[in-house]
Sequence to fold (633 residues):
Amino acid sequence: MASVTISDMRKSFGKHEVIHGVDIKIADGSFVALVGPSGCGKSTLLRMIAGLEEISAGELRIGERVVNELPSKDRDIAMVFQSYALYPHLTVAENMGFSLSLKKASKAETEERVGYAARTLGLEALLDRKPKQLSGGQRQRVAMGRAIVRDPQVFLFDEPLSNLDAKLRVQMRGEIKALHRRLATTTIYVTHDQVEAMTMADEIVVLRDGRVEQAGQPMDLYDAPANIFVAGFIGSPAMNFFAATIESVDTLRLEDGTAIPFSGGEGLAKDQRVSVGIRPEHLMLAPGGAPSKITLVEPTGPETLLTLEVGHAAVTMVSRERRRFTEGEIITIAPEPDRLHLFDPETGMRLPQRQ
Amino acid sequence: MLRPKRLGIALFKTVMVAIIAIWSLLPIAMIFISSFKFDREIFAVPFRLGFTPTFSNYVALWEQWGGFFSGLVNSLIITVFATVLAVLASAIAGYAYSRNRHPVLSSSAFFLIFIRLIPPIVITLPLFPVVNQLRLNDTHLVLIILYAAFFVSLGTLVMRTFIDQIPIEIDEAAHIDGASRLQVLRRLILPLSGQGMVAVAVFVIVFSWNEYLFALIFTTANARTAPIVISEMIGAIEGVQWGVLFAATSIQLLPVLLFVILAQKQLVAGLTAGSTKG
Fold:
């Protein structure tokens, strides 16, 4: 096991720079998720760590070693690919033992380590099968088994669950997390799915356009997003945003004239223009709140997803009330006063708020 | 029940297939059948299927044309080594073309196609003094190298297409697992592109086995191949023994025919590589 330290790392394809100086410190044994929309550079970053892409500038350390110039095989890492990348002509056992056969490990050692990985992942019965005889979830496990057998310093996962159906995805999510708890190997996990990142990671790094937008523990990102992008990216359904002005220490006024009470506004200037972010789950039914017309009702069982028209804006709300909502109905809503997020409309950065 | 129009189309197709099959197979069948006839029966008009088969032509071939059988051995040696050489070189080059992107590679790929368009005779004559100088005249080696070289360009393109279908993640996973490029090639790419190699092998085998021009120019006695001996039979002073000639042709034909039939399945897969998504 080892820590991973990324310092001012850059990647250019020709003249086109796609990673613009990224700094990330990953503690020994932690589980870090790199998230961001497609094209944000998260996979490129992972491939640079794996040694599959050259590092154009900056420094990459695994443990104390600078590994910029080392080939993949000398970095002591293992990687699980989105497509699994199993060797189609080899059996499950041969797939998992491939790295050992390259090292010319003894038969006994190979059997022991492949056996351990197979037991860990419940693959004992499948050792003689070829990859094409396996289901998606089983292939996924073999790919993980291949990584476990190598007993590396760092595990790298590149969107490993994207090709699985929803139910299996949730199950594998739990298995990978349990595996990490057991092996305690430093893990870097790339995903575009913020729910995966939230549920699995000790720490999340949100990337956009080759830059780190924010890094922190999942709940910190949820509770105090550093900017509008992170606020909109973390959380599902996504946060609602409104333009507003500060009227007093405890009141905001939206553009359509609605007054909203809030707390923690000390230090903000009166008449300052702000962007207000309100999470759908922090809106509630409130007599005397803003009148809103329901345009779409989507019950999921435990909660109901509502799309509302407030003034001219479309707003999403999640309600846990056990009540029948009908489309076209007018309800009155208000946000929880201490759950508002304020951002500078110019820079998109979070404004200081007393929590 | 087929509607008349469909029936018409089906009938038309069947007839066309039959015509093409007869067109290509009849001469071969006639030669094969004639090799079991006495000379006087061979050109009897009308052609007769009913006759008493005889092996006299094959016996005469063995007794009078021992050179044909040493020619067969030469053909076999040259074909086997030319094929191994061409397939290996094509696979390695195809791997390089498939996994690397560089302007020089792209333009050399065009060159590969371009040199296929040059008629062989154009390179044969200038090669003659070169081969003489190297004292390679009348050796197996010269034909092995020439035949292999002739197919490396096409073989490389076939192998490239084939290897393109093997996801690059497999290489990457293997590199992370600790494999060198050579190990990736030997342990993953070659085993996974077997069908492509069979396709290339078929080209080289059929060509090497039947090639006449290079063999005529570069061999005299020691490395003379079977087709050269067959052509000598036609030019024999005491008149052509057609039955013996047909016996030799039938023997010459058999190995390639068998090989192509056996490799048919792999061949189709190899030639259509890249045309559909696996």
